[in-house]
Structure formats: structure tokens, C-alpha cells
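quick one
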Amino acid sequence: MDSNISYIKSLLENKFPFFGINKIRELSRLVFEITKRDGIDPKSFIEGIEFSDYRGAKTSLLKLRYPSTYSISSKDSFYLPDIDIKNSDKACLEQGEFNPENIYYTREVENTSLYERIKTLFPSSAFREILSLKEFLKDNKFSLEKYNQRRENLFLVKEKFDFFKACPCTKNVVCCNYSILNTGYGCPYECSYCFLQGYQNVSGIILPCNIKDFLDVDKIKPSHGRLFDLPRVGSGEFTDSLVFDDITLFSDDIVKFFKENRNISFEFKTKSVNIANLLKIGGADNITVSWSVNTEKMIEENEHLTPKLEERLKAAKKCAEAGYGVGFHFDPVIFYENWRKDYEKTIENIFDFIDGKYIKWISVGSLRMPAELKKVIESRFPDNKILDEELLLCDDNKLRYTKRLRTEMYEAIIHKIKKYDKNVVVYLCMETAEVWNKCGGIE
Ligand code: SF4
Ligand code: SF4
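structure w/ iron/sulfur cluster:
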């Protein structure tokens, strides 16, 4: 990939010898994206550019790159950063048991039950004491290449501050008043669109050993979103809620706490099927286990190392039978040729497995990302197709599909869900009031 980009740059430099670095950089980005998307040879493509001036060449390339949105978008909607793809940053997509080579811990967690349990579960790992995560990071510079090795390192810490907070959401959208209980940081799965890959600065998985300190009615004070019966708290923001549950058994303490606090709703958000402990302890109506779902094609192409849709739905069915509420998150909804038919199929599959009366909510949110994540995705997943579509830069510095396309996708998904069960609570995640209203209003 590195050489393909250098090749494109040198072809452009030859064709436009009087253009400066910045102009060549922008044109290279456009040629790279068009030729990758269309699977065509850059050499003949560049030879075919008819314009010799910069403005003409760039406009013609923008029109080819953004055929549906060029004429309706402002010029600053097209995000054209330099291309900086390194083969060494490519994500490792080999399946394997989580078995960290190194387990770093701080002295204060040494007597905790999680530390003891991890010692038993991973007898051959090297246990290394560290002063603090902050000190460790000072001596261990982070890079994307190291992020790819995060499954090799587990950090056991005492979390002192970051237990509970309002979901950060984004500006100018309808917020659902969700709150987050932070049960860890880092995920072993490899979803191409994952925001953590652009956010996490630790090459490892971090688990707090003091989860009981989190579960305190004086600390958990969620707000109440008006679509829901109860104020909602959930884990699963900075890690998958259940992927490590067989190791941590956090669900023991969480389920116990929320069974004693039925005025708050708790949600485990996952793509895993790691539900054995949940089934063992049994659920309650205010505890929901929810799955992020997608079309089979998008799961196959983008949600690497995760269980297939059918496995997730079987797990959801078992959780419903064990007394938990279940939820689903169509997030991110991804645009591609057969999106409508395939998302409808996923909805059919959900209702084939689960009676609507067990479903507490379904959220829908389209693919979006901080602009800088684009470079991380193309480096880690050079074969991804999600960036080939027309994602436009918005006011909050995030890339999204147009409002028109987002609305069309939401309407199709909501319509199909409501055909199965008109009473299911459906909400949009990170969407503007304008889009909500176009999709039938804020219920
Ligand atoms: S709409 Fe989505 S991002 Fe915003 S608060 Fe709710 S869950 Fe969080
Ligand atoms: S499951 Fe969630 S946290 Fe894990 S890689 Fe996928 S998107 Fe990221």
C-alpha cells in the first residue's frame, strides 16, 4: 500500500510538474480514493485527467469521488488529509483466545479478588508490577503498531475517578440522557469503524479491580430520558460490556446491585455471546442485555473476530428466557448497494428469535466518525469499503452521510421494526432534531 501511494504521487508530479506539495497531496488523496473504490489502475486514470490547471483537475476529481453529493455540498465538506498508510499498522485479524503475555498491575490491586482470579486463569503470563498506568505510559510510547498488540497486555488498576459519567454524545443532536458506568478500557475485537482505535493511547486492555467501589447509590445518579421508563445507565462505551465477563465476573456485582436498585435501568452492551454468568445468576426487568447488530455482510466485512448475527440472537433469546430485558443497537448503519434488503433481513431475524415484548429498546445510528479516524481506519483496515462511500465533514468535525441518506435509512429500518411490533421503543443515536422529525418525530 505504501508503494501504491508513492506511485500515485510520482505519477501526479510527472503530469503536473508545476504543482506544489499541497496540491499534489490533495490530488493524490482523490486519485487514491477513486482508484481504490473503482479497482482501476492509477496510471491510466491519471493519464486520462483532461485538465492541466489545478482547479479544473481538482473539480473533475471531486465530481468523480463524490458523484451524489458534490453538487449539493459546500466545498469544505470534502475531507482530504494526506495519505499516510503504513503496512506495519495493519490490524491483526487472527482469531485466538485472550491470553495476555504481560499482566501489569499496581500494588494496590494485589489483594483483590480479580487479581487473584487472573493469577489463576493466566498462570503462564508474566506479572509485572508498575507504579501507575501514567508512569508506565511515560516510558512506553504509544503507536498504532502497538495498538495492534493490545491483546498481549492486560493492566489491572484501581480506578479512582472515572466510574460514572453522562454519555458524551455530540453537539447539536437529540441526547437520550444515557449514563455510562465504566467497567474497563480496550476491546479485543477488531471492528473497522471502532472509535477506540483513534482514541485509546494504551496498548493493552485495562480492567479496574475495584468494581464494588463503583456500585454506590451516592455515585450513580443517572438522568431520565423521556422515552424510557427508568433512568438508564450502561457499560460498553470504552470496552465491550461482556467480552471479558468470564474472566472478571463483573456481572455478579452489577446484577446484584441493580436488583437491589430497581429504580435504575442497567444495560450490558455487547457483541459477544459471553453470557454464561448472566444466565447463572438470572435477570431482572430493569437489567437489559443488548446487542449491537448489523447485516450479515457488514458483520463479515467489518466486525472482525466477533460472533455472527445468529449467535448473538441466540444469546439474546437465552437472556430473555433468563429474565433479562433485551435491546438491539443498529449502530452503525452502513450504506452499501443492498443495504435496505439486508437490514430488513436482520430485523426479520431479530423478531424470528425474540418476541417484541422482551425488547426494551432498539437504537439506530448511522456510520459516523471523528474526521481523524479516517486515516486510522485506512491504515489498520486497508481493504475496508466503508470509507469508499460519500462521508461528508460536518460542523462537529465528524464524517457522516448526508441527512437525506441518513433519513432514508432510518425510515426504512424504523418502518420495518414497527411492522413487527409498533410498541417497541426506537430511538436515534447522535441525530439532529431535524432528522428525528423527518423520521416521524421524537416519540
Ligand atoms: S443519543 Fe447516543 S450518544 Fe447521545 S447520549 Fe444517547 S446513547 Fe449517548
Ligand atoms: S465491539 Fe465495540 S469496542 Fe469492540 S472493537 Fe467493536 S466497536 Fe470497538
